[in-house]
Amino acid sequence: MATIKVYMKYTKDFGYMSIIETINDVNNTFLSRRELECNFIGLGGKLKKLEAVDMVTKEFKLSKKVVIPMRLKTHVGKSLITGTFYIYEDEDLAKKQINPTIFSRLEKAKAKIAEAVNVETSESKLEKSE
What we know:
Elements: E1 4-7, E2 18-28, E3 33-41, H1 49-59, E4 66-74, E5 80-88, H2 91-97, H3 100-129
Antiparallel strand pairs: 1-2, 2-3, 3-5, 4-5
């Protein structure tokens, strides 16, 4: 059973509607994680992993859980992205099971975003002081 939610506004305002459609939602008790597969309709080539994590976290109300984007696949000729996410209760369990390279890439992306925010705030403070 597919669930469709429509997002009209998002923090990065793409300027048009995007839809999240759930393809597969499996609770893997052997590995103590939830495996979620979704289609992001209308965001082909524009969606980044951290933005997809934010959308999935808000959609499925996963604020206190660890959501890890394993794969974002774009489809040729379509504005469709298929994403695979692993959802853990505990970050330590996730670090034991998942390749450390994935975590280092996510940390780099988060650091880059934080740096951009710091640059913007420092520039706005300089403009106000002048």
